[in-house]
Target: Coenzyme A biosynthesis bifunctional protein CoaBC
Amino acid sequence: DNSIKKSMPFYGKTVMVSAGPTYEAIDPVRFIGNHSSGKMGFAIADEFAKLGADVTLIAGPSTQKANQNLKRIDIISAQDMLNACSSIFDNTDITVMCAAVADYKPKVVSVQKIKKQENNLTLELEKTTDILASLGKNKKPHQILVGFALETNDEENYAKGKLEKKNLDLVILNSLNDKGAGFKSDTNKITIFNKALEKTVFDMKSKTEVAKDICEAILKIIK
Ligand code: CTP
Ligand code: CA
Model:
């Protein structure tokens, strides 16, 4: 009933979460992608929905199933994800960019299947738009923007750099040096930095538990 709903921590908040990989077409049958499973982003979207938020999940290609209580927009490429995120961002209170967006895409998408040649093949790649950075530029003071940083080395400095460069309220560091953390796994280990560069280190947990920690960290800064 409504009084229970109203007592939920994110009641009345509009939340956007991105999840999964993006696929960048090479030709009609091939793409450049990555190993993101979507598990972390889906878990975050589900957790926000459970806590009463009005959630839109922007999902790249993934076999994950989402909670019934959220809107799901399926996209393929980084450009699709940019279009979807940009179209709803102004109406969101909280955005968490969890997707593993491709940094590069083929400059030319062949209309026909590329035939095998005698020689090697070189593909020219061009940069995609950094969606998170573009949302950061357009962010209004009441909006909360959270990004991830997936790193293998010099993790903390890179994560803090992304927080500042992309105008984030929180950055969630995912170090691939932690065993049991990363794309395919059901567990994750994160470290969160806020704008004051205060650091919170979390234990290795299931992605569902990690999603709860992330929602709690966001609740702290909107209170
Ligand atoms: N991101 C994005 N759009 C892109 C690339 C990344 O929105 N084209 C977002 C990711 O969803 C993530 C954050 O930016 O929340 C950081 O992604 P990451 O790949 O760790 O960092 P990059 O800024 O892309 O830098 P690099 O890959 O060189 O470390
Ligand atoms: Ca990247």
